[in-house]
Amino acid sequence: MSKRNISIRQCSIADVNSIVKLRRIMFESMGYSDLELLNLADEAANEYFQQSIPTGEFIGWIAEDTQKKAIGSGGVVIDKHPPSPNNLSGKKGYIMSVVVVEEFRKQGIAQKIMEIIIQWLKKQNISIANLHATEMGRKLYKKLGFTDGTEMSMKI
User: Fold this and answer.
1) pLDDT band for position 77 (50/70/90)?
2) Is residue 4 very low, low, confident or very high in pLDDT (cuts 50, 70, 90)?
3) Ranges of each domain in the chain
4) Taking Cα atoms as reference points, which of 137, 127, 150, 113 lies closest to residue 78?
5) N-acetyltransferase domain: from which residue to which, for each copy (predicted)?
6) In the CATH hierarchy, which fold is given to the domain comprising 3-143?
7) CA distance 115 to 104
8) Alpha carbon of residue 133 to chain centroid
């Protein structure tokens, strides 16, 4: 199936189950295998998206095949930080949940989802976007202009 047979649209509350299933695929492809932990993450994500999609806290996109089956997704949350010389608005887009089911990978779908997210951020006058890249996604993100950064984290 070619990219032109795939449609990408902004998600709604009706897409929560699809988003949760796609995130599960993403986490499994990242090596998560503890079924109990994955199930708990699914439940927590379902609750999060049920609340955050209607309020606009999470903005997401779904890629669908010709049968309207969800085969990919991506989303963004806007974080608000104190303004800085590099970002006078203080707003940053945090891109997440970019995933395409295995049989549709390497067809440009993730790139198209990312381009839609980046255009949406530009329309919102948000000039900084961050994400956490898996090894699978790193090449695409670099191609789109993301740079390796110095972001560090600590699990507390």
Assistant:
1) very high
2) low
3) 3-143
4) 127
5) 6-156
6) Aminopeptidase (3.40.630)
7) 17
8) 11
What's the Cα-to-Cα distance from 8 to each of 32, 36, 37, 63, rounded to whole Å? Answer: 27, 31, 30, 4
The three-state secondary structure class of 3 is helix
DSSP run (H or E) holding 140: helix 135-143
Q: Which tokens go with 74?
A: 């991506």
Check whether 105 has a pLDDT greater than 70.
Answer: yes
Q: Name the residue with higher pLDDT: 56 or 138.
A: 56
- What pLDDT is attached to residue 1? 45
Query: How confident is the model over 28-69, as pLDDT tens digits?
Result: 999 999 999 999 999 999 999 999 999 999 999 999 999 999
Distance, CA of 21 to CA of 9 (rounded, Å):
17
> Whole-angstrom Cα distance, residue 94 to residue 75?
8
- Please state the three-class secondary structure of 10-67 as a single string: ECCHHHHHHHHHHHHHHHHHCCCCCHHHHHHHHHHHHHHHHHHHHHCCEEEEEEECCC
